[in-house]
Each structure stands twice: as C-alpha cells, then as structure tokens.
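Entry:
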Amino acid sequence: MSNSIRNLSGFNFFRRFRSIEERLGLSAFAVLSLFVMSQPLFAHDFKVGDLTIDHPWSRATPAGAKVAAGYFVVKNAGSTPDRLVSVSSEISGKGEIHEMSVDDKGVMTMRGVPDGVEIPAGGETALAPGSYHLMFMDLKSPAKEGEKFKGTLVFEKAGSVDVEFAVEAMGGGHQGGGHENHGG
C-alpha cells in the first residue's frame, strides 16, 4: 500500500495530532458537532405567523379517565398581541381553555376561559399546571406515556396550527389538579 493511501485512513489522520490534548480536542469537537446537528431532531416546536408553540405536552391518564390536560409556552415575536381562542384534539370529543386559581382562603377554582388567552406582543404566555391550561374532555382514548397525540390550536390573528402533544409520566406537581370532577 502506498504512503498516500495509508495517510488517508482514519488512524493516520489522528497520528497527525501528536499530543493527547489535540486528540481529545478533536474528538470533543466531533461529538459536539453531532450534538448540534441533531438538535432539530429533538425540537418540539411549532410555528404559525409570529407565534412559536414550545413543547406541547400532556400527562398520561389513568385507565377510565374522562379528561386530560395540555400545556405549552407560546411566544409572540410580533408587534401586536394575539389570542388563543380554541383547541381540539384527536383523543377527545371536546377541548377547552381553562384557568386554575387559588383565592386568599386557599380555595382552588377552575373555570373555562371562553374568550381565550392573550399572548402579548413581543412576549409569551405559559399554559402550565396550576395556571392556564387546556382541557381535553370526553376522552376517546387514553393519553399514554411515551406517545404523542395530535391537536389543533386556533389563534385569533395567526390562525390555526396543528401540533403534537408529547405524553409524559403521570404525577408530578399537578397530580391531575382536580380535573376528575371537572366536566363540561
């Protein structure tokens, strides 16, 4: 085998870097490059107009559950506010926007928000456990951990966008938040 062919092999390529630091640096650079290039594969964002919907998610539901909740952060890069006005999903017969609050006596209340939720210009609104959230009612099928289900969000100005809700483990800080008796 000629020297030029041997110099093209991967092993001889690393021999050009004499010190262990050079070899480690090159290896770290290669791994970091792979990580950066793979980020779009892990992204779970959706765009419509000036809005970005970041990581829509839900919790797994127990057997027999009739409701599930949905969460995400919506960012508005535009110069005018917008408003989330409705939601639907493939796993439910009905979708609504809700708000949970606790009064000064510690009493938790949950109510529908028929006028929707505003997303301020140049700002963001979080739909999160214990705050604004989506309710998927009359479940047709359970939300299963590790799976995704499709939904549609409708905004007053930006229009509608199809998203996927990633289903995460049951439990955590919200623990269903009293949705079991929350009908509609």
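The mean pLDDT is 80.
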